[in-house]
Amino acid sequence: MIFSPEPKKRIEDLFGRNDELKELDKLVRKNRIILVTGMRRIGKTSLVNVYLNKFVKQRFALVDVRTSGKSFNGIFQVFDDVLHQLDSWINIKDMLKGVTGVTVFGSGISLSWKENSRANLGEIFDTINKTGKKFLVVLDEAQRLRGNLSYVILDLLAHCYDYCDNIKFIITGSEAGVLRDFIRIDDSQSSLFGRHIPELRLDGFSREKSREFLIRGFGEAGLKFKQDVIEKSFDYLDGVAGWLNEFGLRCIEKGTVTESILSDVFENAVKLEIEEVSRFSTNYILVLEALGQGRTRWSRIRNYLEGKLQRTVNDSEVQRYLEKMIKRGYVEKRNDEYLILDPVLIRYFSKET
Ligand SMILES: Nc1ncnc2c1ncn2[C@@H]1O[C@H](COP(=O)(O)OP(=O)(O)OP(=O)(O)O)[C@@H](O)[C@H]1O
Ligand SMILES: [Mg+2]
Q1: How far, in Å, are 66, 101, 111, 112, 153 from residue 115 at the CA level?
Q2: Is any ligand 1 atom within 6 A of the Cβ of residue 241?
Q3: Residue 320 sits in the same domain as residue 183
Q4: Is 186 in the same domain as 243?
Q5: Can you tell me whether residue 77 is helix, strand or coil?
Q6: Are residues 233 and 330 in the same domain?
Q7: What is the 3-class SS of 160-205, one letter each residue?
Q8: Following CA atoms 11, 12, 13, 15 in sequence, which dihedral angle do they give, to the nearest 10 degrees?
Q9: Which CB contacts under 8 angstroms, 24+ apart, belong to 205-210?
Q10: Nearest to 345 by CA among 335, 334, 328, 89
Q11: What is the CA angle 129-155-173, rounded to 5?
Q12: What is the mean pLDDT of residues 150-168?
């Protein structure tokens, strides 16, 4: 089914991503670490899931690290999970017996993070590599692992890049700049410095593809629709698969296709975006308001912030906000102007004026 609440797994259910699947396959064949990026709800997990099930077929592990936490406990749980999944394809438990910090018991593997007997992830992956079989590990939303202990992951990735020719990684992230910051490939102090790590960036569907997506979904569900609502859906949701999918699901639930459902989904999309933006600073919202109102140049953004915050705002503060928002993919700089990138936010913040 084209409309479903969970990420897709089967190729028959994944709409319009054949080129991306082929591209991902090409990248995985030629590289050891690949980034898959794209804004929230665009379809990253679905693409990677389908890729694993259709192209890789075996010996893969996919772990959603969004809720893992950044402690040793959290990081080692991620790798517990990776090992557990890999073990379901090929028995790695026996091989890992005797590796420092690894306890193997009946149905599982446990990794210790205790200081003097901490599991050595490099040694674990070396052992897996020696099987001579190919493995693919996906860390979904990996930027969430950044923090004081991110070196644990980066050291492992660098080690595998250099020494484990049978193990590859796909790393996904919805905040491309933040993910790149986490990986730190351009930082000479980082263990991954200088490694070739290509990126596959997922975009929203075109107007035509969005239309096709909905028509196919409504067709499958046997729902009648008016063409103008389909047309408007692109204006509201800008080809983001997750929001088009949500629109489809809600229409099925209500048994009808209306613009008011579309507008509810748009409000939801905005809410999620605003929550994400405000997680970093509520002042980001003020910057988006300024940009949405056409105050796209530095001085006018600063004036707007001063008016709203009722205090002086200095240049470095404005610079910090803008740089962070560019990094997180909300804003881009074109010549001397700053522009909102995310179409859902553009629509919302321009409408407010
Ligand atoms: N190409 C597609 N064809 C059909 N449905 C899709 C497609 N891409 C995404 N979806 C649907 O949209 C929703 C969001 O997709 P998915 O979870 O893969 O996106 P995501 O980018 O990983 O989102 P998040 O940023 O929240 O992790 C899911 O319900 C999924 O089934
Ligand atoms: Mg996802």
Answers
A1: 25, 10, 12, 9, 17
A2: yes
A3: no
A4: no
A5: helix
A6: no
A7: HHHHCCCEEEEEEECCHHHHHHHHCCCCCCCCCCCCCCCEEECCCC
A8: 80
A9: 205/16, 205/239, 205/240, 205/241, 205/244, 206/239, 207/234, 207/239, 209/15, 209/16, 209/239, 210/234, 210/237, 210/239, 210/244
A10: 328
A11: 95
A12: 95
Look at residue 178 and tell me whether its pLDDT is greater than 80. Answer: no
Q: What whole-number distance in Å separates Cα of residue 15 and Cα of residue 239? A: 12
CA of 47 to the centre of ligand 1 (A): 8
User: How far from 65 is each of 78, 141, 166, 209, CA to CA, in Å?
Assistant: 7, 6, 23, 31
15 CB under 6 A from ligand 1? yes
Task: Give the distance between the most distant pair of CA atoms in the chain.
Answer: 67
Over residues 33-71, the pLDDT tens digits come to 999 999 889 999 999 999 999 999 999 999 999 888 788
In the numeric block, the tokens 């070396």 are attached to 126
Q: Is the CB of 144 within 6 Å of ligand 1?
A: no
Ligand 1 nearest atom to the CA of residue 17, by list position: 1
User: Where a domain ends, among 201, 229, 248?
Assistant: 201
- Residue 145 sits in which domain range? 11-201
d(CA 189, CA 181): 12
Report whether residue 44 contacts ligand 1, using a CB cutoff of 6 Å.
yes
**AA identity, residue 100:** T
Evaluate the CA torsion angle 41, 43, 46, 52 in order and state its sign.
negative
pLDDT, one tens digit per residue, over 114-133 is 988 999 999 999 999 999 99
Residue 123 CA, chain-centre distance (Å), reads 28
Supply 230's token pair. Answer: 């389909």
Tell me the C-alpha distance between 72 and 324, whole Å: 27
Give the pLDDT band (50/70/90) at residue 86: very high
347 and 243 within one domain: no
- The strand ranges marked E within the chain are 33-37, 60-64, 102-105, 108-111, 135-140, 167-173, 199-201, 331-334, 337-340
**Domain boundary, last residue among 165, 183, 201:** 201
